[in-house]
Amino acid sequence: MRLRIEQDVFVVRQLGREVARLVGLEVQDQTRLATAISEVGRVMLAESREAEVAFTIASNGVPVLEVAVRNPVPGDAARLAPHLGQVGRLVDTMEVGDEETGTVVRMVRRLPASAPKLTPERMDDIREGLAAHVPGTPLDELNVQNQQLIAALDEVRRQRDDLARLNAELEETNHGVMALYNQLSEELEETNRGVVALYAELDEKSVQLRAASEAKTRFLANVSHELRAPVTAIIGLGRLLTDPSSDSLTEEQRRQVELIRGSATDLLSLVNDLLDLAKAEAGRIEPNWAAVDLKAVFGQLRGTLRPLVTRPEVELIIEEPAVTTLRSDEVLLAQILRNLLTNALKFTAAGSVRLSARAVGDDVEFVVADTGTGISSELHERIFEEFYQVPGSQALNGRGTGLGLPYARRLAGLLGGALRVESTVGEGSTFTVRLPLS
Ligand code: ADP
């Protein structure tokens, strides 16, 4: 379109809006583009009395509408540019340039993704529609502009209201967050105070517990000690009564005295066990560190335990130790192993009880394995508690006190090692003592 008189500026504005609409720009962008074109047209016309506007659809990767406004005055760009400062904000890009035949203002606006596809047929339709476009009067255009201005003002007010509402909401949220933060801080502080108090209480409790445990140990040691003398006396007196050189007893009296002696013997072994354990717990056992000859210890055990093997179905096997010496306490080590072997013989009806020793890293492992009743896994720790005996477990000889394993574990600890068990009910048990070589 050529611009020659002022009225043409209104017409090109209408035309620009119509083009923008037909190629799919949104309503606001239609107004922006129409405003930009009419402004550029107005400036060009005022400066050079003649201008020409051309619309092109091009593609910069995405489809764009390009509007070029030319005048026939070469070298006019530098003079025009300052008048067009605001226009650039209404389109994506705007350039003012000099060409051979004149000056050109080129504006580009990207088409939205939602715009209809501009096929050659569609372009023909658009051209036809534009040719048929009847321009309105300047008054009509003024009317349209007024309407657009009112709509724009409305939009601005709506956005301002929205902003005020958002601000209010934000402030409220801030209040909420602050309140939550304060509440959390308070709760945290309170919890901290609680935890500190709890720790203090725990400390106090553990002091009390230690005191109670020491008192128990002292009590056990004293009571056991006091009991040992009278019980030993009872056993002695019983032996005297049944001695052939004493006055003869009736059969019934002899049976009763034997009962008394049996009970007293049981009681003495309980008292001895208690005393041992109490001593170990009180830290009154001081290991006597020396080189221990394992061959000798094993030989001794072989001799002392043989009498306890009362059933031909059970074989006691004391292997030759694979390690010959270690630094430890011979008496305490022998006590641990005798304890484990005695237990194994007590709970094995048939099969074998086997003792072996081998080096494992810097340690020696003593293994006492039997093919006896076994212990179910949930009791593997409980059997190391004082007085605990597996319910229903039937020792094959002797009643036991439930103090042997806790004592053995204590001693293993005193010797710098540990005692553990692996066992399956019906298959047997394996107790392993691990002690440092030196
Ligand atoms: P006890 O004097 O009763 O043998 P211990 O502390 O030595 O006391 O053992 C505790 C319990 O652990 C035993 O009563 C028995 O139920 C179980 N126990 C210990 N050794 C064995 C074993 N080799 N086989 C099966 N059960 C065992």
Would you write up a description of this structure?
- With 438 residues, the chain is an alpha+beta fold.
- The protein is rod-shaped.
- The relative contact order is 0.06.
- The model has no long low-confidence stretch (mean pLDDT 91).
- Bound molecules: adenosine-5'-diphosphate.
What are the SSEs and their pairings?
Blueprint (H helix, E strand, L loop, with lengths): L1 E2 L3 H16 L4 H22 L2 E10 L1 E10 L5 H4 L12 E6 L4 E8 L9 H12 L6 H105 L8 H31 L8 E4 H12 L8 E5 L6 E4 L1 H17 L4 E10 L2 E8 L33 H11 L3 E7 L3 E9 L2
Parallel strand pairs: 7-9
Antiparallel strand pairs: 1-2, 2-3, 3-5, 4-5, 6-8, 9-10, 10-12, 11-12
Helix pairs in contact: 1-2, 5-6, 6-9, 7-8, 8-9
Bound molecules: adenosine-5'-diphosphate (ADP).
